[in-house]
């Protein structure tokens, strides 16, 4: 994490602990710009009793969302009246009350102000007649972002609300979050929605790029692809590949413009964050057209300080590894912070959204023991990665028991102590996200989920930590550290990209794992023979195919289902990766902390790459007996253990 709380600056390593080496620069490439980490509470509703409990636990930062819009269930996000009532008409009394109510119950309150940039109903209706398809930012984000009148009015609202908050609460506001699109996470659901402004902007974009001017691709073509219905042929479908990039660019341009506006009105110490870059989560119907593929532009922006995502929705149950939705390594290399949203459904989660709506929870934990193990897993993930976080009470009830709040209190104390101490990532496995190749995909295909979502979830079960980078990061990652590099979706490998791989990956006795059709396109056409040219194995060969070269080993797996956790673990072992546990269990680690989550308890052996001198489990205080490189620890069912260790 880029930030370090000033109150933690004096924390020292354990006596005799290794001094951090220059490799720490990987985790913190821009030490001069570190900002304060955030541990916060959030709810859609004014859950005052829960806010008091968090304040009593040392959590004084609250996320306030003065929403003007309705959620996907058709209910208002906020219990307070909307702030944005008409053009240049704002209900600042409603805005003030949302902050003042919290200050009354906790005079030490500080805030993350989440700004709702979605169109209020009145604005959506106003635009629906004048600019068809270009006013409902929740449902048709990129089409709405292309509307210059929407941009003008929304920018004016943003400026007015930020200036008001700065004048009244500026000393209390730690960060602004810019939110828009579906679920307020900059997601575009309107791939079939174009509108006049977006069509005109599309042609301008093509002209600027020096490309042939074409009409917007039809939805029927977008819903298909030349090769097995999955991969697009640039000879026939280059306009669709370009349109995917354009649609993402439209959204990123708006985010950057909004962020630059806010930056002019706030203190240099106040942070700006956005939900973006969900490459590890978005799958069928969403990986391409939700608009997050162009995340690298935002990660490189000096106007944005941190990114946010919930823990993955697909691996939350006991034994699952959770994990960030964004390429964590990429945001770190760009010197950005991260806020992990713990919005998981404990056994006390409130299902009743209104008198008429019961919300079906995603992967809810079924009892107190599961809730404790799950929350410790999420807190440990954030602590090991030195991430900011918030506990999202969504519709209330999530943090309502004494035992749950005991986990929060304990975790807050651990986070306070460890999240600001410099640490070095020690993963030896890198998963590579490739947004440039993703533009070639028809994300209606069932295979889309296999690429990143399921591959990440399998890696959660190999018993060793891993990191996620983007293809363009391969010249920046530690040349010695990563022994296995996995390419589940690099379908586009031009001559330049192949040279890049040869220079930065195919060496140092590394193992590179490729899936399905690596390099099938060079950017001009499709040719399955390129798969063999790159991997040494013909396209479609069944099973796990290894080819050993002088400087590296190629592994080609055509069928994603063949790459089970057990298969991936064996490949990693043969490549020299240290496997901390042979259980199919998630492991998070840096050079000071190791977290292990277990669905089933019992005596489990944990093995390090070198002899260890000391180990202590931080939630229980237990110090297991060390046996050279390993120790035995007794887990309960289920459990998460967070160990501090010294080699």
| Fraction in beta strands | 15-25%
CATH class of the largest domain: Alpha Beta
- Could you give the count of β-strands? 23
Kindly report how far apart the N and C termini lie. 23 Å
Structural class, by secondary structure, is alpha/beta
Average pLDDT, all residues: 93
Which strand order spans the largest sheet, edge to edge or round the barrel?
Answer: 1-2-5-6-7-8-9-10
* CATH topology category name of the largest domain: TIM Barrel
Could you list the spans in which at least 5 consecutive residues all have pLDDT below 50? 1-33
Number of helices: 17
Give Rg in angstroms. 24 Å
User: Any idea what the CATH architecture of the largest domain is?
Assistant: Alpha-Beta Barrel
CATH superfamily of the largest domain: Glycosidases
Cα shape: globular
How many domains? 3
For the largest beta-sheet, the strand count, sense and barrel status come to: 8 strands, parallel, barrel
Helix content: 25-40%
Could you give a quick summary of the protein structure above?
With 647 residues, the protein is α/β, with parallel strands linked by helices. It has 17 helices and 23 strands.
Q: Can you walk me through this structure?
A:
- The chain is of the alpha/beta class and 647 residues long.
- The protein folds into three domains: 6-193 and 251-418, Alpha-Beta Barrel (TIM Barrel), CATH 3.20.20.80; 429-574, Rossmann fold (3-Layer(aba) Sandwich), CATH 3.40.50.880; 600-646, no CATH class.
- It is 31% helix and 17% strand.
- It has 17 helices and 23 strands.
- It has helices spanning 48-56, 92-105, 121-130, 141-145, 148-169, 195-208, 219-222, 234-265, 295-299, 328-333, 368-384, 402-418, 435-438, 448-459, 495-504, 529-535, 565-574, and strands spanning 39-42, 61-64, 84-86, 89-90, 110-116, 173-179, 271-275, 306-310, 337-342, 388-392, 429-433, 467-470, 484-487, 510-515, 544-548, 552-557, 587-589, 593-598, 602-607, 614-617, 626-627, 630-635, 639-646.
- The longest helix is centred in the middle third of the chain and has 32 residues, at 234-265.
């Amino acid at each position: 994490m880029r930030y370090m709380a000033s109150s933690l600056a004096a924390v020292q390593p354990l006596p005799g602990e290794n001094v951090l080496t220059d490799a720490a620069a990987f985790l913190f490439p821009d030490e001069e710009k570190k900002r304060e980490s955030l541990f916060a509470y959030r709810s859609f509703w004014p859950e005052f009793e829960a806010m008091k409990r968090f304040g009593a636990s040392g959590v004084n930062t609250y996320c306030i969302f003065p929403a003007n819009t309705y959620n996907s269930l058709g209910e208002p996000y906020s219990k307070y009246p909307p702030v944005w009532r008409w053009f240049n008409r704002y209900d600042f009394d409603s805005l003030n009350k949302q902050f003042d109510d919290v200050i009354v119950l906790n005079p030490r309150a500080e805030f993350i102000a989440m700004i709702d940039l979605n169109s209020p109903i009145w604005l959506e209706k106003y635009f629906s007649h004048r600019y068809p398809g270009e006013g409902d930012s929740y449902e048709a984000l990129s089409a709405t972002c292309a509307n210059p009148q929407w941009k003008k009015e929304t920018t004016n609202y943003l400026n007015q609300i930020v200036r008001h908050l700065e004048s009244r609460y500026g000393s209390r506001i730690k960060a602004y979050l810019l939110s828009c699109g579906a679920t307020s996470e900059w997601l575009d659901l309107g791939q079939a929605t174009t509108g006049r402004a977006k069509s005109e902007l599309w042609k301008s974009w093509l002209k600027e790029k020096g490309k042939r001017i074409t009409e917007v691709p039809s939805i029927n073509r977008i819903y298909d692809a030349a090769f097995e219905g999955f991969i697009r042929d640039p000879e026939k479908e280059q306009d669709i590949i370009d349109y995917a990039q354009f649609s993402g660019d439209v959204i990123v341009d708006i985010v950057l413009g909004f962020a630059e506006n806010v930056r002019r009105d706030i203190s240099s110490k106040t942070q700006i964050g956005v939900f973006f870059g969900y490459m590890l989560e978005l799958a069928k119907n969403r990986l391409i057209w939700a608009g997050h593929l162009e995340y690298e532009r935002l990660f490189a922006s000096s106007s944005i300080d941190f990114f946010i995502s919930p823990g993955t929705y697909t691996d939350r149950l006991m034994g699952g590894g959770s994990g960030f939705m964004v390429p964590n390594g990429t945001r770190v290399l760009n010197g950005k912070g991260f806020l992990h949203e713990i919005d998981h459904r404990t056994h006390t989660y409130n299902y009743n959204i209104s008198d008429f709506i019961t919300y079906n929870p995603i992967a809810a934990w079924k009892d107190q023991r599961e809730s404790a193990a799950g929350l410790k897993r999420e807190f440990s993930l954030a602590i090991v990665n030195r991430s900011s976080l918030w506990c999202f009470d969504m519709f209330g009830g999530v943090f309502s028991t004494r035992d749950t709040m005991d986990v929060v209190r304990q975790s807050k104390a651990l986070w306070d102590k460890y999240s600001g101490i410099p640490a070095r990532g020690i993963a030896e496995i890198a998963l590579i996200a490739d947004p440039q190749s993703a533009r070639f995909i028809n994300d209606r295909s069932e295979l889309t989920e296999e690429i990143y979502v399921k591959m990440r979830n399998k890696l959660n079960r190999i018993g060793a930590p891993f990191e996620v980078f983007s293809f363009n990061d391969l010249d920046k990652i530690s040349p010695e550290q990563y022994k296995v590099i996995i390419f589940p979706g690099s379908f586009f490998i031009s001559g330049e990209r192949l040279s890049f791989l040869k220079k930065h990956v195919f060496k140092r006795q590394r193992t590179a794992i490729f899936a399905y059709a690596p390099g099938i396109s060079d950017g001009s056409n499709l040719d399955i023979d390129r798969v063999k040219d790159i991997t040494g194995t013909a396209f479609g060969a069944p099973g796990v195919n290894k080819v050993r070269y002088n400087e590296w080993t190629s592994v080609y797996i055509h069928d994603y289902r063949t790459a089970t956790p057990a298969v991936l673990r064996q490949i990693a072992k043969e490549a020299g990766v240290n496997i901390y546990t042979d259980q199919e269990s998630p492991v998070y680690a840096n050079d000071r902390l190791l977290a292990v989550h277990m669905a089933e308890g019992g005596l489990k052996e944990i093995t390090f790459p070198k002899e260890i001198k000391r180990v202590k489990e931080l939630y229980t205080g237990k110090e297991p007996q060390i046996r050279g490189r390993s120790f035995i620890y007794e887990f309960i069912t289920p459990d998460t253990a967070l160990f501090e260790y010294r080699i």
